[in-house]
Amino acid sequence: MKTEQLHSLFLTCHSVCTDTRKIKKDDIFFALKGDNFNGNTYAEQALSKGAKYVVIDEAQYKTSTRAIVVKNVLETLQELARFHRRFLNVPIIALTGSNGKTTTKELINAVLSQKYKTTATRGNLNNHIGVPLTLLAMGCNTDIGIVEMGANHLKEISFLCHIATPDYGYITNFGKAHLEGFGGVEGVIKGKSEMYDYLSTNNKTVFVNGNDTIQLNKTSTSKRFVFGNNAIADVNIDFTEAQPFVICKYNNLYIKSQLIGDYNFNNIAAAIAIGNYFKVEDKAIKTAIENYIPNNNRSQIIKKGTINIILDAYNANPTSMYAALLNFEKQPGHKTAILGDMFELGVDAKKEHQSITDLAISINIDRVIFIGDNFHQSEIHSDKSMKYSNFEDFKTQFDFSEIKNTTLLIKGSRGMALERLIDLLPSH
């Protein structure tokens, strides 16, 4: 079946689904495969649950005229998304970066939705499956699409740009993330810059943080819109303070966010700048930023008993860990940090964990607890720190009643799932 024909069928469906547990009536089900599952085996179940069509790539599972057999389900999903994006022809903003992608995407969405009907990446569905699903979630009433793109190796951003064909793009930063897949920091810069390469080649607009010299150099020949607090900025946004929440100044308005840490200033500034570019009124931008509350373990503020918790356990890499610790040091009162391993660092894992260990015990934090095999192998010479090789050892051996009357930072990679700590902390 040609893509155009499949697209005609797709337009008659409610939405795209890849998980039979979430099937809704009149969905179109794509039978994707993974290391431990074969979606083809669920095709009949999808139909029985109300799917209007199922797309499969193993003919023996065709039990209905509503089953569409293709050569490769994943590639068909991607091509359908690309076709649908061209069919709608709405402006699309793409963003990537080492840190802050999802928060920035949520902020941009909050700002632009003050004036436009937006469709944005849900959660962090930002890979070779998530990007097509985001595009296929857009409808004829979508004014602007906002597509987050993640990558852990070279050529991935280029591939995602080929599917989404964005009109605008923004890179949050270049940091020490996914070093194993990219082969080092230079690989990270090269990989993320594939977005700039695509936009520049196609004469599209890039949004650039004017305070980031790497970004400025990478986009020197691009069509760009610069924000910052310097002479080359198209829009000026000034950092005021982060005690603990970020406050910034824009067009004589003070915007008081509910995001902690000065490292969140650039995320906020990008959203303000993009709102400015798309002519969202200043007061509406202020309202959107001030009403945005972080969730999903990203810089959440939680109060439990005598403990003020900064839960930043969604993910971690050396760059974000470094920024979080330096910001945490500025917090008043007694401070405790619980830090979990950082993943996907490859041959740099030992060096980077030792570097973060040295930083954490050298700055003004009263107590530091390290969890994970990598941190456990780090050398620690301090009586204010403890280390555990895994979460279960920490859970069974540590006396949680000791954590009280303190501000607590919890940060680690997604695989560490340190949000589990919340239920273990005393509530009095």
Automatic annotation (TrEMBL):
Domain Mur ligase central: 96-274
Pfam families named among the record's database cross-references: Mur_ligase, Mur_ligase_C, Mur_ligase_M
Single GO MF descriptor: UDP-N-acetylmuramoyl-tripeptide-D-alanyl-D-alanine ligase activity
Keyword terms of this UniProt record: ATP-binding, Cell cycle, Cell division, Cell shape, Cell wall biogenesis/degradation, Cytoplasm, Ligase, Nucleotide-binding, Peptidoglycan synthesis
EC numbers: 6.3.2.10
Signal peptide positions (record): none
Record pathway: Cell wall biogenesis; peptidoglycan biosynthesis
Annotated Mur ligase C-terminal domain residues: 298-413
Subcellular location(s) per record: Cytoplasm
Protein's UniProt keywords contain Lipid biosynthesis: no
Domain named Mur ligase N-terminal catalytic: residues: 13-83
Catalytic activities: D-alanyl-D-alanine + UDP-N-acetyl-alpha-D-muramoyl-L-alanyl-gamma-D-glutamyl-meso-2,6-diaminopimelate + ATP = UDP-N-acetyl-alpha-D-muramoyl-L-alanyl-gamma-D-glutamyl-meso-2,6-diaminopimeloyl-D-alanyl-D-alanine + ADP + phosphate + H(+)
Enzyme class: ligase
InterPro entries referenced in this protein's UniProt entry, alphabetically: Mur-like_cat_sf, Mur_ligase_C, Mur_ligase_C_dom_sf, Mur_ligase_cen, Mur_ligase_N, MurCDEF_CellWall_CoF430Synth, MurE/MurF_N, UDP-N-AcMur_synth
Similarity remark: Belongs to the MurCDEF family. MurF subfamily.
Name assigned to this protein: UDP-N-acetylmuramoyl-tripeptide--D-alanyl-D-alanine ligase
Annotated organism of origin: Gelatiniphilus marinus
